[in-house]
């Protein structure tokens, strides 16, 4: 489907999930607050390694690429995100971010609902593209197709080990076998739909890397590769509106700042920020940045007091929204670090995560947020 | 052909009671006979245990995986792939589905593997005894917060799930019963945990604290008394609803896909008579799982339920690895293999909630379907793997195969697997494009091997192959 000027302008959301519980207080550092030093005797970032954002907060040197976005007013920092009585469990907390159901076990992902709004008749099977091996629950709604790109985009599709002359023939045969046949039953029909959608998706997506050309050099990291894949699909104007990827693991219980250690906070964030830098450069170079925002979130923040080498699961965290149309700045405020104000030793969330989603849904994606996030929430004004 | 039927039936039994079997094994088992095979499956003690020494030698972190993914999964995957006691391991998986306990909260793979070992050791024994073991299992106690269930402050989490998910099913007790049940389990806790620093994780131990127990009179399911936990379990297993609930779980897992559990109060079983038969065995044997399974596997309703079960990701991965062979050693790469069920939607040792996984059709979505097809296709397309080689060698023994013979041969040796007429037509059409395959000289043999592998890949890509 050729891209029209109108289609090119449809708002796009890219979600970069920081899996594992990113440490809020070492990401957006209240460097002037003595309680920061008091509580972070082991993992506190030294003053000379903090880049000041303003008189109150800074970011660690290892997140340097984000500084330019901050200075250009394109980076919104959402403080204290979470919800009341949040569990300290990775999977349960992440599920709640994905389904907006803090009490029951939710089954529909918020972005799956968005995809259903965008494309109720399933006319475009690549409306949602996820880079990663499993289908995140945030994207999962029964009947809504998602293209799950588990490996390199070039290899996306069924039976990737069959290549060359054989491939076309085998895939045609596959498509023929997946035609819904009368009388085989509901489950077979459902699988037929699912299989055909994925096949269509492959046909559509494979032009993306073929059409791609760029001067931008992405770093050689898994997250940069995923972001590059997203850029390739976005530039191909295939009508994809929702992109999802993740980086892990931010679960820094030990060795949080261990120099050079692959699982350390510095190494994780260096990869993420350098990846984002290349990604945004690429978008701008291709004049495809205006209709994209990037949301970064984690399932919870971490405990205020470190444990001697790292930090443990906490509650209130930080989220970021970045993009050329974003109104940069601080939104909300960091919950108090005072012992009496903590919950179980953790920052008390003061911005409901569904507020962040609501702004994105209402102001960017032009959808009614309430049915998607299961309620009405105040909207921090990081988008016009 | 009677022999062919025997092979097909045996394949069905081995798929359900275990994780499948190759042609050599099927022939050996047919020679022994169906009932004899069922007996052997029901008596795992007649077969050697899994060689754990080899696992620990190459993957020492699998001994006490603690909080390290994927080492917990590695430990169980190694058992699943290597076990000579398939039904024992399958029952461990069955009970993991029912008594679903997840690492997301437990954060301790050592404890979860201990729980799986309980299911492995006691899963075919007495259900009432197993239920009591589960009630005393410190992992379960922690998972369902029963250590916070005090005489003077009752926590109903365990009490409720015991009734709703582990024995009777929703609709067969009242809220008051939940309360009284929970009261009876007050004081069922675990010994204070040794802190993780500095020596790491220590095993959790069940502890009963009589001083924390509500010893008062309780009224539970119409019975009155100063019940403690054992008494509750004894009352529960006598309820007709208990037999119906557990037997419906057995039917769903071993026979044919039922609707999801939350629908059970409203949707009747697809085969009420089958459930009644199993319930009879449950009652008559006084809850002996072995006896119930004997009735199940020897029943007509089981024998006739071929391909009525959507394979779980665990079954897809384990049956594939056992079929293709070459994955017995815990070699580098076992971590990723152990995570394959996760990519397909089933994170072993970490079900999303105490309700376990949604099974049947709900295993399938656009991400998981591709993951399933691609994983299995990659494995069966690898002609260097011994199991794939074995299939091709059997085909090769025919010398030359016409297109329909290639298709029939592959469908037979990879299963036997049944496909619909339309699917079969496509497979034959593909084989016709290739022409006949022959192993008469080296050049032809190389092509023939290739074609056979591709036919196997096409077969495992079919929708029908998703069923087991």
Tags for this model:
heterodimer; A: 384 residues; alpha/beta; Alkaline Phosphatase, subunit A; 2 domains; nine-stranded mixed sheet; two-stranded antiparallel ribbon; 11 strands; B: 468 residues; mainly alpha; two-stranded antiparallel sheet; 24 helices; 56% helix
Task: Summarize this structure briefly.
Chain A has 384 residues and is α/β, with parallel strands linked by helices.
Helix percentage range of chain A: 25-40%
Radius of gyration of chain A from the CA trace? Answer: 21 Å
Query: Helices and strands of chain B, in N-to-C order?
Result: HHHHHHHHHHHHEEEEHHHHHHHHHEHHEH
The percent of residues in helical segments of chain B reads 55-70%
Envelope shape of chain B: globular
Kindly report the spatial arrangement of strands forming the biggest sheet of chain B. 1-2
Strand content of chain B: under 5%
Which helices and strands, and how do they pair?
The complex is a heterodimer of chains A (384) and B (468).
Chain A (H helix, E strand, L loop, with lengths): L4 H4 L3 E8 L4 H4 L6 H6 L10 E3 L5 E3 L4 H7 L3 E8 L7 H10 L10 H9 L9 E4 L15 E3 L15 H13 L8 H20 L1 H5 L10 H14 L6 E7 L16 H21 L6 E7 L18 E6 L6 E3 L19 E2 H12 L5 H4 L11
Parallel strand pairs in A: 1-7, 1-8, 4-10, 4-11, 5-6, 5-7
Antiparallel strand pairs in A: 2-3, 4-9, 8-9
Chain B lengths: L1 H16 L5 H10 L1 H9 L9 H7 L12 H12 L3 H13 L4 H4 L2 H14 L4 H9 L2 H6 L13 H8 L10 H10 L3 E3 L15 E3 L9 E3 L2 E3 L3 H10 L1 H15 L17 H13 L4 H10 L1 H4 L9 H12 L9 H10 L22 H15 L5 H11 L3 E2 L1 H11 L7 H14 L2 E2 L3 H20 L7
Helix pairs in contact in B: 1-2, 3-16, 5-8, 5-18, 5-19, 6-8, 8-9, 9-13, 11-12, 14-15, 15-16, 18-19, 18-20, 20-24, 21-24, 22-23, 22-24, 23-24
Describe the structure.
The complex is a heterodimer of chains A (384) and B (468). With 384 residues, chain A is of the alpha/beta class. Chain A has two domains: 5-153 and 214-373, Alkaline Phosphatase, subunit A (3-Layer(aba) Sandwich), CATH 3.40.720; 157-205, no CATH class. Chain A contains 13 helices and eleven strands. In chain A, strand 2 and strand 3 (58-60) form a beta hairpin. In chain A, helix 10 (222-235) packs parallel to helix 11 (265-285). Chain A is globular. The model of chain A has no long low-confidence stretch (mean pLDDT 93). With 468 residues, chain B is mainly alpha-helical. Chain B has helices at 2-17, 23-32, 34-42, 52-58, 71-82, 86-98, 103-106, 109-122, 127-135, 138-143, 157-164, 175-184, 229-238, 240-254, 272-284, 289-298, 300-303, 313-324, 334-343, 366-380, 386-396, 403-413, 421-434, 442-461, and strands at residues 188-190, 206-208, 218-220, 223-225, 400-401, 437-438. Chain B has 24 helices and six strands. Chain B is 56% helix and 3% strand. Chain B has two domains: 6-303, no CATH class; 386-466, no CATH class. The chains are: A alpha/beta (384), B mainly alpha (468).
